[in-house]
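Q: What residues go here?
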């Protein structure tokens, strides 16, 4: 323990100043492996050296200020540095001692302002033991020396170089899909053998699966899910991390009560990490001196698929995303979202329809007609039970239509006719490319013909417009043929995702929001109570059906063989 030679702290003893000392210690993340820079070693060095500076006067070590794991390039983010400054302002300390200038500063501008302006302003003594050795009480002018300025510049350059090296390393890791965060996202833990790899945390992962199941299959709202989790006593992600002994902090931790909120549930339902997609680099610090974070454009993110084990399958994730984009409000006191919320619309004004009850019968009615104007649109009213029956019948019929396609596609894929169609499309594509080359060649020479006087300006302009339109049409034709050519070359797999989406709902007997999210984009109700369903995959389904119909015509079965 440092000795105290004083009569009354803050007073003078026989005309001598009583030095009230604050020891400042900083350890950055980059210094973590350097034993000589550890907090313990810095403190030991300061304690050993302090008596030698105060042999002729009384002193007291008032406090030790420690910033562990923080950068020295900015003062504002160092909590104990700021605490030390406040103690200096109020007179609690009048002497600061550090191991060397790099512990106090990695920013030459901050160093100069602190030593040359702040220290004299509050009559404070500043001592640095090494690189270079400073004592502003014994030699006030030393802070203006070239050695101090050069040391500040070198310390800043070290911070800049370290920052650049770290950024390059992080970029390389992000490109490979390695996790670089301090804490694993909810549902995962860091691999004990590789801090950049994530493993599934089964306890939290089960909560994630429950959230998706409740939202998709049970039709629960995000608020309802949050209430259920809180009722079960399940801690939210931040509280869960702390319950596992992690020193987890974020800007909102102080106000975090450990309870789930609808916004937390919503973020999880939209996080592609749960299907194995790692997204990193969505924010960046402005510079190594300015640590404020700014958003990065989405096209500059580092996105790597299959980077971590999936907790949720892609179909469930897509269903949740589809439902999230719809109207999922619930009635007061209700946890579940109504079956058709976000799906049902008026066929004329295309606005959503509103649910209401009359004589214990539930109806849907055009929102425009009910809430805005009786003249802008009609009621389009339909009973809920009639709507459910009609939608179920339509979905069952659609599945039945798709059900026969896999056998037809397999037959087509094994027939020589498919290869013949591929060759025909290849020849047609080449023919159109030659036509495009001719048009492009004429366009290239058109300008010179005008400049050489072979045509008037009006003739040039008319021909240019006509040829450019012809070239555009040829480009579109070639693109269309290429798409058909690729289809003919690859065929259509019986595991095609569009077929799979329908076929997994074979033999359905009732509707659910999960099924609607899988198959339906919107349901339009007409004034005569008829409905029109817009299915997902309408274009791919049409292409599959046309592919099957067109290629079936090309099959001629003779003697049990397709030729």
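A:
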């Amino acid at each position: 323990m440092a000795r105290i030679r004083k009569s009354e702290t803050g007073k003078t003893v026989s005309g001598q100043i009583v030095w009230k000392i604050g020891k400042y210690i900083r350890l950055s993340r980059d210094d973590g492996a350097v034993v000589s820079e550890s907090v313990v070693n810095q403190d030991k060095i300061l304690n050993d050296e302090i008596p030698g500076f105060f042999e002729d006067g009384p002193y007291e070590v008032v406090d030790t200020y420690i910033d562990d794991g923080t950068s020295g390039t900015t003062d504002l983010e160092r909590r104990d540095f700021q605490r030390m400054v406040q103690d200096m302002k109020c007179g609690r300390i009048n002497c600061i001692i550090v191991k060397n200038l790099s512990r106090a500063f990695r920013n030459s501008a901050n160093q100069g302002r602190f030593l040359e302006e702040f220290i004299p302003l509050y009559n404070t003594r500043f001592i640095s033991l090494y690189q270079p050795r400073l004592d502003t009480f014994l030699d006030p002018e030393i802070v203006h020396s070239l050695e101090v300025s050069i040391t500040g510049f070198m310390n800043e350059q070290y911070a800049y170089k370290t920052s650049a090296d770290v950024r390059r390393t992080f970029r390389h890791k992000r490109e490979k899909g390695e996790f670089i965060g301090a804490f694993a996202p909810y549902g995962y833990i860091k691999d004990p053998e590789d801090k950049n790899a994530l493993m599934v945390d089964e306890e939290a992962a089960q909560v994630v699966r429950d959230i998706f199941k409740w939202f998709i299959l049970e039709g629960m709202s995000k608020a309802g899910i949050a209430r259920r989790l809180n009722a079960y006593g399940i801690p939210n992600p931040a509280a869960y991390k702390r319950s596992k002994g992690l020193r987890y902090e974020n800007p909102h931790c102080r106000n975090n009560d450990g309870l789930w909120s609808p916004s937390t549930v919503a973020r999880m339902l939209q996080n592609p990490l749960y299907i194995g997609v790692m997204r990193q680099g969505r924010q960046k610090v402005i510079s190594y001196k300015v640590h404020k974070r700014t958003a990065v454009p989405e096209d500059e993110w580092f996105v790597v698929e299959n980077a971590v084990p999936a907790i949720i399958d892609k179909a469930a994730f897509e269903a949740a995303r589809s439902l999230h984009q719809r109207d999922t409000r619930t009635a007061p006191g209700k946890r579940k979202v109504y079956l058709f919320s976000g799906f049902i619309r008026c066929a004329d004004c295309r606005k959503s329809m509103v649910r209401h009850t009359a004589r214990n019968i539930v109806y849907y009615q055009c929102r425009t007609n009910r809430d805005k104007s009786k003249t802008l649109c009609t009621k389009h009213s339909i009973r809920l039970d009639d709507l459910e029956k009609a939608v179920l019948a339509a979905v069952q019929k659609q599945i039945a239509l798709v059900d026969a396609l896999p056998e037809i596609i397999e037959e087509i894929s094994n027939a020589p006719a498919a290869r013949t169609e591929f060759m025909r499309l290849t020849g047609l594509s080449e023919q159109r490319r030659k036509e495009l080359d001719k048009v492009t060649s004429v366009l290239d020479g058109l300008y010179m013909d005008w400049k050489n006087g072979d045509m008037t300006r009006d003739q040039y302009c008319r021909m240019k417009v006509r040829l450019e339109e012809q070239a555009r049409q040829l480009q579109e034709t070639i693109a269309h043929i290429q798409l058909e050519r690729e289809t003919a070359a690859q065929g259509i797999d019986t595991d095609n995702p569009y077929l799979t989406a329908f076929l997994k709902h074979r033999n359905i007997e009732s509707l659910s929001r999960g099924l609607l999210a899988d198959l339906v984009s919107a349901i339009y109700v007409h004034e005569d109570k008829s409905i029109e369903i817009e299915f997902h995959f309408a274009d791919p389904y049409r292409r599959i059906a046309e592919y099957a119909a067109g290629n079936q015509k090309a099959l001629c079965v003779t003697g049990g063989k397709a030729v």
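A: Context that may help when evaluating the design: Residues 342 and 408 are 35 Å apart (CA to CA). The longest helix spans residues 416-451.
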